[in-house]
Amino acid sequence: THLTTYDLLVGRPVGLLASMQTGDPGIKRASIERAHVELTTPTGDVVRTPMRWTDKGWRHEFEPTEPGRHTARVTVLGRRDDGASLVRTTQHVLQILPDQLALGNEARIEPDTPGVWRVSIPLARADRDAPVIVSAEIWATPRDGDARCVCWLSRMASPSEPDATLFLDERWLARAGEFDQLELRNVRVQCCDSAIPLDRAPRMQIAGDDRIAIARRAPESITRDMLIGRPRAELVLPNRASDASRQARAFAGHNLMLVHGYCSSLVWPSGDFSGSVEVFADPSQNRSHDEFANLLLAFGNNSKSFGIVAHSQGGAAALHLWTYYFSGLDWAEGPRLIQSVGTPYQGTPLAGNLAILGDIFGTGCGANFDLSTDGAAMWLAGIPTASRAAVSYWTTSADGAACNFFSGLFLSDPEDGVVEVSRGQLAGANNMGNLEGWCHSTSMSDPPHYTDPSRNAEMNAEAAR
Predict the structure, then answer these.
(1) Can you tell me the distance from the alpha carbon of 350 to that of 371, in angstroms, rounded to the nearest whole number?
(2) Where are the beta strands (DSSP E) in 192-304?
């Protein structure tokens, strides 16, 4: 089953489509005869509704009336071509947000710092107390041809900003050559915690582009400065730390940060890592990627610079930190900036299954939307290739029996008991391979992969600090 929209807002229609495929070579065909949806609202009400057949498949649509976490469980009854009947279920965790933000009609561009332009995108209706992710494509119409895309910009905008602001390095414009006008396309504003789109616009005019005159030569290569809209020497930490912590940071070292994952604690064997090491600990918690990243940001204020070795969700949180915030990661030097093992970059079907999560992690940390397949898809859509290139990642899988019998019923082989190898892939990053004979955590058929002394020694030696 899949969602027909990611506009998960109160009052907006949300659709579910169900289809069936067979992965058994002995079964040529399997079809759905009946299907229904059980929708559980944040207040615990359960509504069961039959799905209807349409020209696009079995479908159900509903309009959420309250914000919060909804669960949609789809059950289908079908038949194989050999006459045997079957029952299958899937489950979606849906984070529904209030519909309280809207984009304005026209953006503005004006000088910011030398070589950098400020693009202000108006928020016509914005009742918010948290940052939002704003993204847009810059398009230029040249004097001798059709419009073409100059670059894609994205940034975390704070609640104190009346407009959502992007920073455009003018070297992108130099690469575009002479042009008559600029335009924004595919503008979107997303929730920082869930990446759910709050509003979007296919096109937006830019006022003030007649003030731009580009005389400089196009750069020979794309630099980190161009990608972040700021020279590296001007990078500063967000004003979240106290003066005391900023002062302490100036005298700290160049460290390797060891990070655990969802609903976890101290997982990395300290004896496998040497040099300056800091161990992050937020035991038995359920965090969004953004909440997790900000905890890493605050913890990293104790270091001049740091690289990260992360397990499970910790890898996604580290990538989120590198993409949207300035931290000690921006000052680290060494071959591998972020290294991760067993991170579900594309989510896991277990993220909304409380019974399985409790069985694996031994505590009731709850469902996590960012770790669901839907939530991960929305989050990944905002992570640029340049950020992904900083990640080196490993996946693992069982050698023989499933890592966990019950989770194995919900996952496709190969998998590590929590993460399917296929969903542990991060396009644009450095795939270090899949190793068999290792599972995701303790009490599984094979040892937990974070205890592999050989890989830990390699990560320690290659880590940026």
Answers:
(1) 9
(2) 197-207, 254-259, 277-279
